[in-house]
Amino acid sequence: xxxxxxxxxxxxxxxxxxxxxxxxxxxxxxxxxxxxxxxxxxxxxxxxxxxxxxxxxxxxxxxxxxxxxxxxxxxxxxxxxxxxxxxxxxxxxxxxxxxxxxxxxxxxxxxxxxxxxxxxxxxxxxxxxxxxxxxxxxxxxxxxxxxxxxxxxxxxxxxxxxxxxxxxxxxxxxxxxxxxxxxxxxxxxxxxxxxxxxxxxxxxxxxxxxxxxxxxxxxxxxxxxxxxxxxxxxxxxxxxxxxxxxxxxxxxxxxxxxxxxxxxxxxxxxxxxxxxxxxxxxxxxxxxxxxxxxxxxxxxxxxxxxxxxxxxxxxxxxxxxxxxxxxxxxxxxxxxxxxxxxxxxxxxxxxxxxxxxxxxxxxxxxx
Length: 367
Hints:
Low-confidence stretches: 5-19
Helix content: 25-40%
Number of helices: 14
Radius of gyration: 20 Å
Number of strands: 12
Strand order of the largest sheet: 2-8-7-6-5-3-4
Structural class: alpha/beta
Mean pLDDT: 92
Distance between the termini: 55 Å
Largest sheet: 7 strands, mixed
Order of helices and strands: HHHEHHEHEHEHEHEEEHHHEHEEEH
Oligomer: single chain
């Protein structure tokens, strides 16, 4: 699929028109109590899967030092960052596309596959933020519900393939469930799918697991593209940084949909990201605390008879079917922002892992 500038201009216009809600409007619509609590400094945010431990001290120091360079376009940081990411993933820089957050990359990929219209397949619930853009650009879709174990149903996704299918999306671990498909499950699936269909695997939370990324397979399977983010483990949700990993031909095509690839990333963010990757002490602290909080959270839910899904991320998916009080009101009363209801059948919702102190406040509120 080759694209030219005229295709890009048309796609860019339609894609921007699809975004009818601002980020704040979107959050207000989808997060209970958001408007009431968003501006309160005492609000505990357990709804966006953010890193409760903030940003690496070394990253903060590098970001502060870089501020003096904010008046210039900086190419040094971009080259160093790209090189570090390539080294981290044992790939070449030609395999990478870096951007201001992985959400932007999901949008870019749906624009790319929509150039010839066609059809895309997504699981539900999942992090399908690009879904309305695909529809607005004239694509049709098939939404595949999770199976009874709340796992992405690869068999049903495969049986949903049509002659005009252009994209299949897999979030692994899945958001909001936290369930993790194994490498072998996904690779077997990729092998069984026609190679003209792009397989997009969103690995925003893979670093919270011991499972190896699929990034080493992008040169083997030319239709595979993997997205990663700095928003979660590294705490860059506000600083904005993500990257896509694919074969060089596909990456080159995606870059044609950008007027200046990577230019939307600030010097400060790049400097911080380079330092963050080298701060193993902070990374270990985050992972260790996440596991401790996860164990505590699962234990507390079990004590209360609340059904949960095993989590491979920094959040947990659970059912409010056995909870008789007004859950979201209880959270509002103590200024906690929780998730929304993702599935009405079973009243399934999600809570992000905060610090241990924040989770004790949370369980005190819902007791």
